[in-house]
Each structure stands twice: as structure tokens, then as C-alpha cells.
Amino acid sequence: MENNLNSIQRKIIHIDMDAFYASVEQRDNILYRGKAIAVGGSPEGRGGVVATASYEARKFGVRSAMPSKRAQQLCPELIFVRPRFDAYKEASRHIREIFSRYTDLIEPLSLDEAYLDVTQDKLQIGSAIEIAKLIKQAIRDELQLTASAGVSVNKFVAKIASDLNKPDGLTFIGPSSIESFMETLPVEKFHGVGKVTADKMKRMGLFTGADLKKLSEADLKTHFGKVGSFYYRIVRGIDEREVQPHRETKSLGAEDTFAFDLTLIADMEAELEKIGKTVYDRLQRYNLKGRTVTLKIKYSDFKQITRNQSFPFPVGDYDTIVDTAKQLLAATYPEDKRIRLLGITLSNFNDAPLHQDKLPPSGQLSLFNFEEE
Question: Which residues form the UmuC domain (predicted)?
């Protein structure tokens, strides 16, 4: 194996909770146990989208980010549950406390998943596999929830491993197995390979890591740009990214999907005022100001657009945020359009927050986050 991994081999664990929001709901309400449930959305009207689904619902093809109307078509007995973010955040806090018993090198990706570097663990256990077992058991005992874990020498492989035996799985991919494992991996499983890129690869006859490996780094860069260098390294099991406990927050925002499409500008502006208040409160909490305000709009046909306004100075006051969002909305000529979602984001922060250690990861700053499958 081409081993440029590190002179000191890391021990990385990726923990991913199993159907987190749905599992919390099933834990807290006996009527939901063993039932097909979807957190988010509604069977009435258009009803928004599914945030996550229980494994019972997934058997019918129900997935996160799926319109609730489609979800109910796939599973007529589906139970829609209103999300309780306070409960999910409390469970996440407890899970993070369990992680911290073993290491301080924790990189949260969302409420329900994180990387842990246990190369030098606090309790001197020495075995990443044993630590993963202990964490999984503690989560089961203390929260009555299950998690899946992937263990390897780098972040990429650990994350892939955690998804192999869900739910309640634990998969170890050791150094000697990484390269052969990467060769069998479908191209759509690689970081940075979305549907469009995967389709392009398959048209080129590239279906697995082994196929990608046949191309030189120069070839990959020619076909896929700078990310080609990443593909070249990752298919050989080379991922030198460190676990970062204090990830830089690049943007902060909030959005909301409405129970019914908005058609009146007055209603749209009223919703922007509510969303703007959430953004403002979060900016205050983390002592942030940004130079760019971005408005996100999703229409009833699921077409999505963004519009932004940048300032020569950082802004963070409520009036500027909301007034800018309203102006951006007006510039889209919203009359006679049906809007299902609005969002406001601030970015281009010029100053670090005073309490960087207390910031959540950048992906966790929206009102409504979809869980990964």
C-alpha cells in the first residue's frame, strides 16, 4: 500500500447515531415504538419535508428531505411527528459528554455525528475498537439509543465504515485493508462526488475506486478540476485531515419550511421577520457580524434560488438583516409565486467570535437540519 498516511498512525472513530430524531421520539413515546414514523412534515396539505424517518419507515423507501406527500404515498401508515429540537439537543449534549470521557479531540459534524481522535485516549485504553464499544454501550445504557461506529486510521475511511453495518454497527477497517476496500467502493460514496459527478464518472466507465485508480493525478485533474487531486489520494487511502475540535464557522443562518405555500408578500415579509430574529439572536450569542446577507427561496415546484447583498463593513443588527432580506425578496418579483421555504444566512465574518470554544459546527446553525441516511 502507498503509505503516506502519517509517521504516527492515527486512531479515528466516526460515531453516527441511528435515525437520531426518530429514535429519540420512539424512546420517549411508547406509541411510536416499532412504528413507521417521520419527524417533520405533515400529512395535511403539502406539509413540508421529512427530517428523518425511523427504520420501520425506511423499509418503505421513506428518506430524509423527501416531501411528506411522497412519503405518505410510499407508506400510508406513516405517523408524522412534530420535531422537538430541545430534546435532540439535550441528547446530543449527553452524547458529547460521553465522548469527552475518552478524548478532547472531538469534531462534531451535526447533532448526531462526530469524529473522535483517540490516538492518545484519556483512560489509556489504547484500542480504538474497545473505546468505540464502550461509547456505544454508554449511549445505550444512559440514553436508550443506538449508534453506529466506524474505526480506522483516517477520517474518510472511518466515516464510510460507520455506515456499513447500520443500525448499531461497529466496523473496523485496518491499514492493511484500506486500499483494497477503497478499490471496491462505488464512486458515489467518495467525498465530493454528487449525483452529477457520479453520472459523469460512470459515462467515462468509472464505477468503483479501482476504476478511478487507473487514472493518473493529471488525468483526474483534467476531468474534474482541483478536486481530482483529492480523488487521487483518497482512492489510495490517503487522508491527512486532522480531527478539528474548533471548526471555523463560515456562515450562520436560519430557515423555515411552511405548512402551506406563501402567496402574499405581507406573509413572506412576516416570516422573514421571524427568521431574522432567530439569526440575530444567534449572532448575539456568538458575538458575530458578517458582510454578506443571503436570502434563500424555495418555490412550490422545488426550484430554489439564492440572492445576496454584501456590505463594505460587517453588519449584525436586526433591522439591517431583515430589511436587506426583504429588499432581496422584492427583487425576485414574488407576486403570484408560491413560496414553500425562506431562509436568511450571514457570512464573511471578519472577526473571530469571543467564545469560539462554545460555537456549534457550521452545519448545525440552521433551524431545521436534515439527518444523513
Answer: 12-194
